[in-house]
C-alpha cells in the first residue's frame, strides 16, 4: 500500500502519526505549511527558543489560530491541536510522540536533541545535516542501540541524492557519480553575510520578504553546505569524495554524463563511484542554460553492450560512448517534502538516507588570515568555510569539523585557505557533540 493510502487509513482509524517539531524557522515553516494538507499526521507540539516567533510563522503559513491554542502537550493530544512552547525536553520525553523532527539548524544543539530523543525511544528526522556531517554514523548507531530510527530529511538534497543512488543500485546499475547542483565560482568561498545576496541572485528586499537568514544562505553560497551535504551522501551511500575538495565542474543538465566520468575517459572524476557538485556557472561567470543548480542527479554506467543498446533504443541521453547516463531531478522543494520522511519512518520503518560509515568530513577552512583571539563563527559566517575531505585525510591532519567551529577561539595563526586543526583552537570539550565526535573518530578510526 502506498504511503498516502496508509496515511489515509491512519486518519480513518483515528491513529495519526504524532510528531514533535524542534525549531520553527524557515525550513520548519515549510514543513508546517504542508501538515494541514497531509492526512494521518498530528503535529502535537512545537518547541522553539521563541514561541512567539513560532506562532507568527504558523500564522504566516496559513494555520488557523484555534489549531495552536493548546496549553500543554496533553491538551493538544485531547483536542487535536498543537502546543507551542520552549521546552524541547518536555517534547522529546512525552510518551505519546512518535517522531521528532529536528529542525534548528544548530548542529551542537541538534546532537543533544537527537540523543535525548533516542533515549526516549523516538524516531528522528534530522534536518540539521550539519550535525550529521560530523557525527552521523554514531548518531545512527545510537538510534539503532535504542531500537529507533534516524534519518536524513527528504526534500533536502542529501536524502534525494540517496534516493537516486538507491534507485540505481536496486535496478542493477553501478553508480559512477552522484550529487547536486550549485551556483559556484572559486571566490565565493570568501563570501560573508554582507556579500551573500548579490552573489546568490536575490535582492535584500526579496530576502527580507522570505525571512531569509543571510548567514544560513551564505553557508550555501560559500561551499560549506555543498560540502556538508556531499559528506552526508558519502557517509550514507559509501561513495568516495575527491581527495582535495569538490571540483564544481560547470555543466548543463545534458552535459552531466560528459563531465561525471573518470579522467581517463574525458571526465573530471579521480575514479568511478564518487560524489561531486555541478556548477551552474562557467568559469568566467556566464550562466549555463538549463542548469542543475537547484537539483540532484546520479550518473550510472551500462556495463554490457545490451544495456548500452537499450539506452540508445529508448533515446536516453548519454555521453558520446553511449555508456554513461544521468538521471536527475531539476528541483528540490526543501521543507515542503519532509512529510515523506515522517511517513517513511512511521509506516515503512525506512529512513530516507542514513549514515553507515565515516568516509567523508567537512573541515573548517580559513576565509581570511586568522590570528590568536579571533572567534570562529561557523558555517556561513565571516571566518571559515567548509572543505570536503576524505575522513582519513581529515583525521590525519586533525581537522576541526565545521559543525563544531561555532564560538571557538583561535589560539594559533591560521593562513587563509588553510584547514583549522584542533591545535589551532581552544574548543569547548564539555558538549555532548564534541564527545560524540571524538568517540566516532575512535570507533571509525582511519589509519594514517
CATH topology of the largest domain: Rossmann fold
Radius of gyration: 22 Å
Number of H- or I-type helical stretches: 17
Roughly how many Å apart are the termini?
Answer: 48 Å
Number of domains: 3
CATH superfamily of the largest domain: NAD(P)-binding Rossmann-like Domain
**Annotated CATH architecture of the largest domain:** 3-Layer(aba) Sandwich
Please outline the major beta sheet: 6 strands, parallel
Output mean pLDDT. Answer: 96
Output the structural class: alpha/beta
Give a nutshell description of this structure.
It contains 17 helices and 15 strands. The chain is globular and about 65 Å long. With 448 residues, it is α/β, with parallel strands linked by helices.
Kindly describe this structure.
With 448 residues, this protein is an alpha/beta fold. The protein folds into 3 domains: 3-156 and 336-348, Rossmann fold, CATH 3.40.50; 158-184 and 223-331, no CATH class; 360-443, Antifreeze-like/N-acetylneuraminic acid synthase C-terminal domain (Type Iii Antifreeze Protein Isoform Hplc 12, Alpha-Beta Complex). It is 37% helix and 17% strand. The strands form 4 sheets. The chain has a 6-stranded parallel β-sheet with strand order 3-2-1-4-5-6, with helices on both faces. Strands 8-7-9-10 form a 4-stranded mixed β-sheet. Strand 1, helix 2 and strand 2 (41-47) form a beta-alpha-beta unit. Helix 7 packs across helix 17 (432-443). The protein is globular, with a radius of gyration of 22 Å. The N and C termini lie far apart (48 Å).
Amino acid at each position: 500500500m502506498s504511503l498516502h493510502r496508509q496515511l489515509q487509513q491512519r486518519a480513518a482509524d483515528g491513529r495519526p502519526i504524532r510528531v514533535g517539531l524542534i525549531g520553527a524557522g524557515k525550513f520548519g515553516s515549510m514543513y508546517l505549511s504542508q501538515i494541514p494538507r497531509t492526512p494521518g499526521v498530528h503535529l502535537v507540539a512545537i518547541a522553539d527558543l521563541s514561541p512567539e516567533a513560532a506562532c507568527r510563522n504558523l500564522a504566516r503559513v496559513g494555520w488557523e489560530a484555534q489549531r495552536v491554542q493548546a496549553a500543554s502537550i496533553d491538551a493538544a493530544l485531547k483536542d487535536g491541536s498543537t502546543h507551542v512552547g520552549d521546552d524541547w525536553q518536555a517534547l522529546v520525553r512525552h510518551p505519546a510522540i512518535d517522531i521528532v523532527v529536528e529542525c534548528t539548524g544548530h548542529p551542537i544543539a541538534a546532537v543533544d536533541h537527537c540523543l535525548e530523543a533516542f533515549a526516549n525511544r523516538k524516531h528522528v528526522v534530522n534536518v540539521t545535516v550539519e550535525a550529521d556531517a560530523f557525527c552521523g554514523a554514531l548518531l545512527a548507531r545510537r538510534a539503532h542501540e535504542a531500537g529507533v530510527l534516524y534519518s536524513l530529511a527528504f526534500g533536502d538534497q542529501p536524502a534525494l541524492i540517496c534516493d537516486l543512488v538507491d534507485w540505481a543500485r536496486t535496478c542493477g546499475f553501478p553508480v559512477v557519480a552522484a550529487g547536486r547542483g550549485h551556483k559556484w565560482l572559486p571566490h565565493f568561498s570568501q563570501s560573508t553575510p554582507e556579500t551573500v545576496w548579490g552573489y546568490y541572485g536575490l535582492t535584500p528586499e526579496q530576502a527580507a520578504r522570505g525571512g531569509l537568514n543571510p548567514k544560513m544562505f551564505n553557508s550555501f553560497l560559500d561551499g560549506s553546505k555543498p560540502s556538508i551535504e556531499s559528506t552526508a551522501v558519502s557517509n550514507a551511500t559509501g561513495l568516495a569524495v575527491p581527495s582535495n575538495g569538490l571540483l564544481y565542474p560547470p555543466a548543463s543538465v545534458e552535459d552531466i554524463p560528459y563531465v561525471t566520468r573518470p579522467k581517463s575517459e574525458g571526465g573530471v572524476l579521480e575514479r568511478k563511484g564518487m560524489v561531486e557538485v555541478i556548477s551552474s556557472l562557467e568559469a568566467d561567470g556566464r550562466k549555463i542554460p538549463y542548469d542543475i543548480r537547484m537539483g540532484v542527479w546520479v550518473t550510472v554506467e551500462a556495463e554490457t553492450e545490451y544495456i548500452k543498446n537499450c539506452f540508445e533504443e529508448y533515446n536516453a541521453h548519454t555521453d558520446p560512448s553511449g555508456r554513461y547516463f544521468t538521471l536527475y531531478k531539476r528541483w528540490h522543494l526543501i521543507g515542503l517534502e519532509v512529510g515523506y520522511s515522517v511517513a517513511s519512518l512511521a509506516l515503512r520503518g525506512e529512513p530516507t538516507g542514513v549514515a553507515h560509515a565515516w568516509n567523508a568530513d567537512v573541515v573548517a577552512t580559513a576565509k581570511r588570515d586568522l590570528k590568536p583571539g579571533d572567534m570562529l563563527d561557523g558555517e556561513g559566517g565571516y571566518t571559515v568555510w567548509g572543505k570536503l575531505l576524505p575522513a582519513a585525510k581529515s583525521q590525519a591532519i586533525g581537522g576541526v569539523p565545521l559543525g563544531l567551529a561555532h564560538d571557538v577561539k583561535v589560539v594559533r595563526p591560521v593562513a587563509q585557505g588553510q584547514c583549522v586543526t584542533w591545535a589551532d583552537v581552544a574548543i569547548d570539550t564539555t558538549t555532548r557533540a564534541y564527545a560524540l565526535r571524538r568517540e566516532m573518530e575512535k570507533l571509525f578510526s582511519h589509519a594514517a
